[in-house]
Amino acid sequence: MIKAKIQDALNKQLNAELYSSYLYLSMTAYFESVSLKGFANWMRVQAQEELAHAMKFYDYINERAGRVNLTSISAPSAEWDSPLAAFEQVYEHEQKVTGLINDLVTLAIAETDHATNNFLQWFVAEQVEEESSADEIVQRLRLLGEDRSGLFMLDQELGQRIFTPPGTADGE
Ligand code: FEO
């Protein structure tokens, strides 16, 4: 049985992961609208990953005989000024999520909930990846500036991304 305080915090994070998925799905729609199909593909995979993160919290709460509590998901923005502006927001958002995961770890330690701390370590590692991949794309877009052919090449590259469910060989 899980402590109410931990259960509430995990449910809050479940909502935050669903919001992340919603935000990235909105960015997918933005990239579709400006005919950057590869960027749209990358973001759609990211939205799927976030949904998988949410389900990890969902499953864990149930596994600990807790109660999942779904609350409303805030509406994300719908438009961005440029691909760079969208990816800057991804990077900023992922840094915020890292902070939320770190706060959860701090709470699990304070409540001596070793199982939850252990569960969260996967997310601690995942956030390193999440920040790094978003930052890499931000840096590349900054380097490209107004280079349209470079943008087209990056679009081709991002179009190769495939969703691999977390926990499988390539899904980290
Ligand atoms: Fe679920 Fe992008 O962290």
What does this structure look like?
The protein is mostly helical. It has one domain: Ferritin. It has five helices and no strands. Bound molecules: MU-OXO-diiron. The site of MU-OXO-diiron has 7 residues, from helix 1, helix 2 and helix 3.
Cα end-to-end separation: 28 Å
The CATH architecture can be given as Up-down Bundle
| Strand percentage | under 5%
**What is the CATH C level class, in words?**
Mainly Alpha
Q: Which ions, cofactors or small ligands are bound in this entry?
A: MU-OXO-diiron
The share of residues in helices is over 70%
Counted by DSSP, the helix tally is 5
* Low-confidence blocks of residues: none
Shape: elongated
- The beta-strand count equals 0
Multimeric state of these chains?
single chain
Helix/strand order, N-terminal first? HHHHH
CATH topology: Ferritin
Number of domains: 1
Looking at this protein, list some descriptive labels.
elongated, single chain, Ferritin, binds MU-OXO-diiron, 5 helices, mainly alpha, 172 residues
Can I get a quick summary?
With 172 residues, the chain is mainly alpha-helical. The chain is built from five helices and no strands. It has helices spanning 4-33, 37-63, 83-110, 114-144, 148-158.
